[in-house]
Automatic annotation (TrEMBL):
<dbReference type="Pfam" id="PF08281">
    <property type="entry name" value="Sigma70_r4_2"/>
</dbReference>
<keyword id="KW-0805">Transcription regulation</keyword>
<dbReference type="InterPro" id="IPR007627">
    <property type="entry name" value="RNA_pol_sigma70_r2"/>
</dbReference>
<dbReference type="InterPro" id="IPR014284">
    <property type="entry name" value="RNA_pol_sigma-70_dom"/>
</dbReference>
<dbReference type="GO" id="GO:0016987">
    <property type="term" value="F:sigma factor activity"/>
</dbReference>
<dbReference type="GO" id="GO:0006352">
    <property type="term" value="P:DNA-templated transcription initiation"/>
</dbReference>
<dbReference type="InterPro" id="IPR013249">
    <property type="entry name" value="RNA_pol_sigma70_r4_t2"/>
</dbReference>
<comment type="similarity">
    <text>Belongs to the sigma-70 factor family. ECF subfamily.</text>
</comment>
<dbReference type="GO" id="GO:0003677">
    <property type="term" value="F:DNA binding"/>
</dbReference>
<keyword id="KW-0804">Transcription</keyword>
<dbReference type="InterPro" id="IPR036388">
    <property type="entry name" value="WH-like_DNA-bd_sf"/>
</dbReference>
<dbReference type="InterPro" id="IPR013325">
    <property type="entry name" value="RNA_pol_sigma_r2"/>
</dbReference>
<keyword id="KW-0731">Sigma factor</keyword>
<dbReference type="InterPro" id="IPR013324">
    <property type="entry name" value="RNA_pol_sigma_r3/r4-like"/>
</dbReference>
<dbReference type="InterPro" id="IPR039425">
    <property type="entry name" value="RNA_pol_sigma-70-like"/>
</dbReference>
<feature type="domain" description="RNA polymerase sigma factor 70 region 4 type 2">
    <location>
        <begin position="112"/>
        <end position="163"/>
    </location>
</feature>
<dbReference type="Pfam" id="PF04542">
    <property type="entry name" value="Sigma70_r2"/>
</dbReference>
């Protein structure tokens, strides 16, 4: 049996057969039934968007667990970023606190920047963070990373290109 073919019946069978199991798995991992329910739904949405080519019935749970594991990692990473940002906000006076809408946009942007940096080679993201967060010069970054200054310039160009692409993507999302 295919895990999901284009037929709604096979998806319905998959959902009916494995939703409770997946929800239980996610509840144990997340210790929160609401987050578990959200991620279980997100898992099945991913299956609908990108069904696998072929898989036997014995591998359905493995396939669902793999998707759910990735979603859990994303969820935990997002929460970690959000907590760090909220801690930095706690030090600010109430008068300069962003609105709830601005907070949501900022958290989403932070998450997207973090995901973009995670896709870059390690030295590129390190160089970018050292320059942007720590205000280090290219010479200082070169010493820190053990590369020449010219390499730091290349790393920064690569990171800034990715930032520009991300900005264009976010602008497109916000405009739509």
């Amino acid at each position: 049996m295919d895990i999901v073919s284009t037929s709604p019946t096979s998806f319905s069978q998959l959902y009916g057969s494995h939703h409770s199991w997946l929800l239980g798995l996610l509840r144990r991992r997340l210790s929160n039934r609401w987050d578990a329910a959200d991620l279980a739904q997100d898992t099945f949405i991913r299956v609908l968007k990108r069904p696998p080519d072929q898989a036997c019935a014995m591998r359905e749970r493995s396939y669902l667990a793999t998707i759910a594991r990735g979603l859990c990692i994303d969820h935990w990473r997002r929460r970690q970023l959000e907590q760090a940002w909220l801690q930095s906000l706690a030090d600010r006076p109430q008068a300069v606190q962003p609105s709830p809408e601005q907070r949501a946009i900022i958290v989403e942007t932070l998450y997207e920047v973090d995901a973009m940096l995670a896709r870059l080679p390690r030295k590129v993201s390190d160089a970018f963070l050292l320059a942007q967060l720590h205000g280090m010069t290219y010479k200082q970054i070169a010493l820190q990373l053990g590369v020449c200054e010219r390499m730091v310039k290349k790393y920064m160009a690569q990171a800034l290109l990715h930032c520009a692409v991300l900005e264009a993507e976010l602008d497109g999302l916000l405009v739509e």
